Structure formats: C-alpha cells, structure tokens
C-alpha cells in the first residue's frame, strides 16, 4: 500500500513484521562491518548479561525503514530524521513487529512525523520518532 500526503491522517498506523534470523545478523555484520562478538559469538555472549547473542540494535531499527518505505506512507517517501531509544535486546528467532503511526502533518512542507515502535511479544524493544517527506 502507498499513501499520498493527502491520504494521511493523524493516528493512521501500519505494521511490518519480521523474524530475526542468524543469517540476518551475520549479513548485517558483513554489510556494516559491526562484528561485535555480542552479536556473533555465542561463547562470548554467554559471558554478558544477555547470556546469548543479540541482534544489532540498528538491524532492528532498520525494520522501521521497511515499515515506512513499504507500508506507511510507502514507496516514494524520503526519510529525513529518526530518533531511537533501544529499550531491550532482540534475540535471534524473535519476531519483531514494527508499528509506525502518524503523529503530526505539515502540509506546507509535505512532511509527516511518525511515532516508531518495535516490539517483541508486546514488549517495546526500540522506540523513537521519524520525520519523512512525501512527494
């Protein structure tokens, strides 16, 4: 689905869901160069407070981009700004549900502010706010 600026209303929301796989974490590490062993080495991760490997926070945050670019408002929008708060770890095998909700609209500049929330089993793992521009 794709929304034009005129179709957006405050409170409108959409969600994107993704299971985090070990391959996702490995690929993200390869693409970004973030090879922190807390993500990639089970023996190392066992010595941390997490006790097992966790997904990169920015991998999880990337699901916000997917929700914005494919669901709300969808193709053609331009990401301008994103604030993030990492609230809890995401483990391999977790299903992350990302919800974006229109908070405010600026008709003159064709911009929207979106509340962005990633959850696992109803628990918030990443929260923030995005500003986007629509064509």
From TrEMBL:
GO terms for molecular function: (3R)-hydroxyacyl-[acyl-carrier-protein] dehydratase activity; fatty acid synthase activity. It holds the Pfam family MaoC_dehydratas. It comes from the Bacteria. Keywords: Lyase. Residues 14-115 form the MaoC-like domain. This is 3-hydroxybutyryl-CoA dehydratase. The lineage of its organism: Bacteria, Pseudomonadati, Pseudomonadota, Gammaproteobacteria, Oceanospirillales. PANTHER family: HYDROXYACYL-THIOESTER DEHYDRATASE TYPE 2, MITOCHONDRIAL, HYDROXYACYL-THIOESTER DEHYDRATASE TYPE 2, MITOCHONDRIAL-RELATED. GO terms for biological process: fatty acid biosynthetic process. InterPro entries: Fatty_acid_synthase, HotDog_dom_sf, MaoC-like_dom, UPF0336/Enoyl-CoA_hydratase. One of its GO terms (cellular component) is fatty acid synthase complex.
């Amino acid at each position: 689905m794709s929304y034009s600026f005129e179709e957006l209303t405050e409170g409108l929301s959409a969600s994107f869901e993704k299971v985090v796989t070990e391959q996702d974490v490995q690929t993200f590490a390869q693409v970004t160069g973030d090879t922190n062993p807390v993500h990639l080495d089970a023996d190392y991760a066992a010595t941390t407070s997490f006790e097992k490997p966790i997904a990169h926070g920015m991998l999880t945050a990337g699901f916000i981009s997917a929700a914005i670019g494919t669901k709300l408002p969808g193709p053609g929008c331009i990401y301008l700004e994103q604030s993030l708060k990492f609230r809890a770890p995401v483990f391999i095998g977790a299903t992350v549900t990302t919800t974006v909700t229109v908070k405010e609209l600026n008709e003159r500049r064709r911009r929207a502010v979106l509340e962005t929330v990633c959850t696992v089993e109803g628990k918030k793992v990443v929260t923030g706010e995005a500003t986007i521009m629509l064509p």
